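Kindly review both lines to help learners:
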Amino acid sequence: MQPDHAFWMPFTANRKFWKAPRILTAARGHYYTADDGRQLLDGFSGLWTSGLGHCHPKIVAAVQEQVARLDYSMGFQVANDKALALANEVAALAPDSMNHVFFTNSGSESVDTALKIALAFHRARGEGQRTRLIGRERGYHGVNFGGMSVGGIPANRKVFSAALLPGVDHLRHTHSLADMAFSRGQPAWGAHLADDLERLAALHDASNIAAVIVEPVAGSTGILVPPIGYLQRLRELCDRFGILLIFDEVITAFGRIGAPFAAERFGVVPDLITTAKGLTNGVIPMGAVIVRDAIHDALMQGPENMVELFHGYTYSGHPVAAAAGLATLAAYREEDSFARALALEPIFEEVLHSLRGEPHVIDIRNFGLMGAVELAPRPDAAGARGFEVFLKCFEAGVVVRNGGDVLQFSPFLDSTPEELGRIIDTVRQALRGLA
């Protein structure tokens, strides 16, 4: 017998959802339209994805034109013009010496691609023993097996733990409520936590470690902002030990923290950068890995007719996705989106921290246009308070996100102060109505 609802939803309590489903039917600008006709202010810009707003007319037009011109082309041994153009534009935005772009279809695929490139690089230069990968506790790097293995969120790992990659270890995470609570921007405490890499280098021997992967600002786990000096110290240690440093910028790239990449904002250049989400404004699934020249060049050896990296996806560099990406990057330029986001940051910080002192709030943290409000969990039901706030806000016409008891905010790059105020005031009223 066919069930009432065939759709098995991702990262959702499906049985509870279908008792009172929340269905969206349209979107434009900063608002969704629900199936009951209500307009909902989007306080999370999609899922960190849609910084330019929904259904941006120039991106929509580019997709419509491209799908009628070249809907798909094989990506193995054949290239399409839009993918070539987009790769050049992404490389032009990236830090100097990062001039090669490998296209994927999601952040999860970007992470697994970056890990494989790191392993292949060391093997190509005669250090094939470097196979160990280092992630970080509380890190989120997607849901493919490589990303789960280096990721450090227990709920994502526990069911699959027996099948995760061997040879993976994790740095300590960077969050301490006792030392960091209610920090604005980068915490002053915690740079020393990068030195945990020295412990792992001693434990495993640094010559066996291929790469370290971190989110410059950890997003899905609840906006963990790097302490002042932390990323710089991590870069120094990777250089000392000959380890590649991968920045997972699936969330932080393309203006989310007021710059093209977190690498630029923090002044730390990694060896590889993973991206997705804001690359196409969320319109068409697409990701990319940006690679330092020396890594790419090390793999360009052997007979010219031989494949250098046995990796790729059917939809790598998809022409319609690439057209969406080109239109997205053009819109960022034309609307000065990165500078606008940077200018909005202090306004967002003020309204977000105005929730300090509200019921159950134990921490607030922010960087760029990423913010978190952490709630004290109920002793008998961790995550229940956060989910209740999500529901109350949705009913009041505002969409926010909760990760357990951490409320998460990711406003549009061109949000207005009035919209930010409405989002936070809606959360305030929801908090005051909680038990």
